[in-house]
Amino acid sequence: MKTRWLPGILFLHSLVVLADEPVAIGTRRELFVDRYLVGELKGTTLKLHEPQLMQPITPPRPNGHYATVLKADDKFQFYYRGDTKPGNHWKQGWEQYHAGEVTLYAESKDAIHWTLPKLDLFEHETFPQGNIVLMNEFLVNHNFTPFIDTKPGVPPEEKYKALGGIAYQPHPEHLAVRDKRGPGGLKAFVSPDGIHWKKLREEPVVPEDWGKYFDSQNYAFWSETEQCYVCYFRRFIKGWRGIARTTSKDFITWTPFVEMEANLPKEHLYTSCTQPYFRAPHIYVATPTRFMDKRGAATDILFMSTRGGSKFDREFTQSFIRPGIGKDGWADRANYAAIGIHQTGDAEMSLFLTGGRRYTLRLDGFVSVNAPLAGGEFITKPITFTGGKLEINYSTSAAGQMRVEIQDADGKPMPGFTLDDCEPIWGDHIARIVKWKSGSDVSALASKPVRLRFEMSDADLFSVKFG
Q: In this structure, are strands 383-385 and 23-26 parallel, antiparallel, or unpaired?
């Protein structure tokens, strides 16, 4: 935003705020998970959509709180926690509890039907399938969280990376274990295939005194937008479970952490599950667990987003996925989302929860600009774009429709691209090209500041993209 000062009487000045600089979106896909592009909503609202529960996946059905689903070139890969002593609990002995944890692995072609491959890496009678990828890594297996490294030029043997570990709490039992086993914190691992893992180094790369106490899922990824590795991890902030962030250029040396602005007053966020959205990776979406410690430790799943920096957007404070009917969903810490939101159909993406639950949304379908049947309008902020066509992801009812107008930065309709010039749009498409009487070519307007005006009736607009 530009400002200029105008002289006033004596030492007083008036601050005049000029119009916002246009938002340069290039050919990026933009979603409406925040108000980044929102100029005016006239009779329209931002609507958070509800994921639909599908058939349970078969197997695995992990009971551990932290799980990760990755999409490789030819398969999905599922990582989840197991215990060599089923039913073991930390109250029976903190060291014994964590010493029995292992990281288990499954594969799938469709993210619904999974196999437990016999890997012949580790042997234990509790897991006769032989699908253990990591064992005998004290504390690390509690929350071992891998990702596929998309940094250009990454060595093939480090295509996969992972963080795992816990910080010791200041209890005598914990400190005695630390004296025997060494420091806690987040340790780094690398792998060529997501199955054969080795430590990047013996020492933690994220020190234990940052954590307080890392006992959550701490996820890192390569950010093409920020040109660095980004890690979101659990930290107590003013007595409440919250989220912190750190970055790194080499996955070994990390910047001083920043405590994120995310929590509502008196709100625990147990995990953050923050990850780049695969169709618009400059937007990080988060599906954290909200923890209600005064309601029997009940949990549900929220939706947040961020574009980097120290703040999450909390446009939506309501639940994204509720615990559901029946006591199972309302049990102690019963609902945790897994890391990983992936396309599982032509128009579908899936996200996963503990207990083998799979939920789906349409592609880009977290949030829409929604209009009732009575109609409304949505006008963007001034933007600049590159490319020659406007693509929209939208849905209308049988009675609804949409028209699109391109305006100049001051809101004046551009000749040939007015509402009256636009062919009425109805139906339901993930990618539809907008057409006017003159056709769909908008390349003459590329790089010029413009606004998009949508006239909508009983319709949802999920994303826009020029290309």
A: parallel
* Residue 296: half-sphere exposure toward Cβ, Cα within 13 Å: 11
How many Cα neighbours within 13 Å face the side chain of 69? 29
Domain ends where: 311, 331, 364? 364
Q: How far is CA 43 from CA 400, 403, 455, in A?
A: 15, 15, 10
Within-domain flag for 11: no
Ranges of beta strands (E only) in 27-95 are 30-31, 38-42, 45-48, 52-53, 67-71, 76-83
Residues listed for the chain: 467
Provide the greatest CA pair distance for the chain.
Answer: 85
Between β-strands 52-53 and 357-362, what pairing exists: parallel, antiparallel or unpaired? antiparallel
Cα–Cα nearest to 150, from 217, 225, 78, 206: 225
Amino acid found at 129: Q
DSSP 3-state assignment of 422?
Answer: strand
Using a cut of 0.85, tell me whether the model's pTM lies above it: yes
pLDDT in tens, 218-272: 999 999 999 999 999 999 999 999 999 999 999 999 999 999 999 999 999 999 9
d(CA 139, CA 216): 11
Q: How many beta carbons lie within 10 A of that of residue 208, not counting itself?
A: 19
Q: Tell whether 235 and 127 lie within a shared domain.
A: yes
Q: Is 393 exposed, middle or buried (0-12, 13-18, 19+ CB in 10 A)?
A: buried
Q: Which domain holds residue 410?
A: 20-49+368-466
Q: Is the peptide bond before 213 cis (omega within 30 degrees of 0)?
A: yes
- Whole-angstrom distance, CA of residue 256 vs CA of residue 420: 54
Contact yes or no for 394/402 (Cβ under 8 A): yes
